């Protein structure tokens, strides 16, 4: 009977040691996860700060900048875009893609005479072809000559 009790106590002690080891392991995993989360927060803050600096730099340029993503969506434009291109606020707000941009230009006569939809499509295709060869394309508009 004493032996049975001693075995039961040893078994409980073993289980307790295993539980403590498990708690220690789990605590180290929690600590590692908390460190990862802290690092991600710091990285996100650094990225946000860099983005603000980057956007400030883009906005301070004297040239118009329209940046389109690979899916042709407008990522950003700077404040000079409206003035240099002669766009009103409604036109700028309506430009969400490269194709929208070329339609606005075509409707304003910037791409020549003819069907604005056809001219816009041809111009967009030309810009995309040039972008495949280069990382950026400079576009000269008739509005800049005025």
Looking at this protein, list some descriptive labels.
about 150 residues; mainly alpha; two-stranded antiparallel sheet; 5 helices; about 5% strand
Average per-residue pLDDT, rounded, comes to 86
- What gap, in angstroms, lies between the N and C termini? 106 Å
Number-wise, the strands total 2
Secondary structure category = mainly alpha
The backbone outline, from C-alpha atoms, is: rod-shaped
Major sheet: order of its strands? Answer: 1-2
What can you tell me about this protein's structure?
With 146 residues, this protein is mainly alpha-helical. It has five helices and two strands; from the N terminus they run αββαααα. A hairpin with a 5-residue loop joins β1 and β2. The mean pLDDT is 86.
Topology of this protein?
Elements lengths: L1 H59 L5 E3 L5 E4 L2 H6 L3 H6 L3 H10 L8 H18 L13
Helix pairs in contact: 4-5
Entry summary:
The protein is mainly alpha-helical. The protein is built from five helices and two strands.
């Amino acid at each position: 009977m004493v032996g049975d009790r001693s075995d039961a106590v040893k078994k409980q002690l073993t289980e307790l040691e295993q539980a403590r080891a498990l708690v220690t392991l789990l605590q180290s995993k929690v600590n590692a996860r908390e460190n990862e989360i802290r690092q991600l927060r710091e990285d996100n803050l650094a990225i946000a700060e860099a983005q603000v600096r980057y956007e400030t730099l883009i906005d301070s340029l004297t040239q118009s900048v329209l940046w389109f993503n690979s899916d042709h969506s407008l990522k950003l434009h700077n404040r000079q875009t409206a003035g240099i291109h002669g766009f009103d606020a409604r036109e700028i707000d309506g430009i969400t893609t490269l194709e929208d941009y070329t339609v606005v230009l075509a409707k304003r006569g910037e791409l020549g005479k003819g069907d604005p939809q056809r001219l816009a499509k041809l111009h967009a295709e030309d810009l995309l072809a040039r972008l495949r060869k280069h990382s950026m394309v400079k576009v000269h508009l008739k509005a800049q000559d005025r």
